[in-house]
Specification:
15% of the residues lie in helices and 29% in strands. The chain is an alpha+beta fold.
Length: 211
């Protein structure tokens, strides 16, 4: 979903851990490209702060590459503006490219209410993470997907359904040394569902170049 209306700037919640608060932007446009361009050495970062993430998505029967790009919301004197990033200028790959708004699940409400994807930065045990995912989707009706990282290399993801409880599962995101970021996992999940993919078919989103 694409939104262009400006919003007022809001302070981060003081309840968030100091190590998490102010470490990264609270929201960004995420563009998932299922036909990564060949421009020399591919990006090797699997995280959010390092720029684009080159990942591999996997189902039981197939797998493929994806490039996840994050464009921070432009900040002006009036706050953050929802200016849409540049589109991908190439034919579609195995799945169409997807652009959506990512926001910190524990960040300002002014950002969360407009988000297509919500990602918590605070790891939780699986049962608690599932509960948190369901709460996030229930409290934000405009959000399609939510992700909460676990204490290992996995994360709990959830996708809104037209009726009934959201679909929830645990996805792998790579080895413990350098797993894919929860933001990258969430964005690939959103792109997968937006393209008509069945949420339950997706099993993992891992770095293409594990550390």
């Amino acid at each position: 979903m694409i939104r262009r209306s400006p919003i007022a700037r809001a302070d981060a919640s003081a309840a968030r851990p100091a190590a998490v608060r102010d470490a990264e932007p609270g929201a960004a446009w995420a563009t998932v490209c299922f036909r990564p361009p060949h421009t020399g050495a591919p990006p090797r970062e699997a995280g959010f702060r390092g720029g684009p993430a080159c990942v591999v998505w996997r189902t039981r029967a197939a797998h493929g590459p994806a490039l996840v790009r994050f464009d921070a919301l432009p900040v002006t004197e009036r706050g953050c503006a929802y200016r849409h990033p540049s589109p991908c200028l190439h034919p579609p790959g195995r799945l169409p490219c997807d652009t959506h708004l990512w926001a910190d699940a524990d960040g300002p409400e002014a950002l969360r209410v407009h988000a297509d994807v919500l990602v918590s930065r605070v790891p939780r045990a699986v049962t608690e993470a599932r509960r948190r995912v369901r709460v996030l989707l229930a409290e934000h009706p405009g959000c399609l997907a939510a992700v909460v990282p676990g204490f290992g290399a996995g994360c709990v993801v959830g996708v809104r359904r037209a009726a009934g409880d959201p679909w929830c599962a645990r996805l792998e995101r790579g080895g413990p040394r350098a797993p894919a970021s929860p933001q990258a996992v969430a964005s690939v999940l959103h792109a997968w569902v937006a393209a008509g993919g069945v949420p339950g078919a997706l099993r993992a989103v891992v770095p293409a170049f594990p550390g």
